[in-house]
Specification:
The protein has one domain: Beta Barrel (OB fold (Dihydrolipoamide Acetyltransferase, E2P)), CATH 2.40.50.140. With 136 residues, the protein is mainly beta. It contains 1 helix and 6 strands; from the N terminus they run ββββαββ.
């Protein structure tokens, strides 16, 4: 069987990094998936492992938009003589979307700068095409 989920979503809380044993790390996050035309949202937990876990805990914060690709998994446990189940995403690839929020000092980090804040490119010379020649 093929089990893959790909979703664009927003983080509901800050990621939590935990160490399991001496060489394993897991980062747990809760995300909200919503359709722009709908008022309803789907909340689901997500976990990233090892190097992905370290990167997520270092760079992601609540409210950040991400694209997650992974496997839909189910966890079950007993509570008060009832079997409880929960679905979650085990992420294999996480891409950061959007520019993120500005730091408290009012400055955006270098990787999150808007294009207008980055250095301008040089103007085309006579042997290069102008911007009007670009078809898009």
């Amino acid at each position: 069987m093929y089990n893959t989920i790909i979703t664009a979503c927003h983080l509901v809380n800050d990621p939590e990094l935990r160490e399991i044993g001496s060489d394993k790390k897991v980062c747990k996050m809760r995300v909200a998936i919503s359709n722009p035309n709908s008022k309803t949202k789907c909340f689901i937990d997500c976990e990233a492992w090892d190097r992905n876990a370290e990167i997520c805990s270092q760079y992601l914060k609540k409210g950040r938009e991400v694209l997650i690709q992974g496997e839909l998994c189910m966890d079950s446990w007993k509570q008060d003589e009832k079997t409880m189940t929960k679905y979650f995403i085990k992420a294999s690839n996480i891409q950061f979307l959007g520019g993120g929020k500005k730091e408290e000092s009012g400055q955006a980090s270098s990787e999150q700068q808007a294009p207008s804040q980055q250095p301008a490119t040089t103007k085309p010379t006579s042997n290069q095409g102008s911007e009007e020649d670009i078809p898009f």
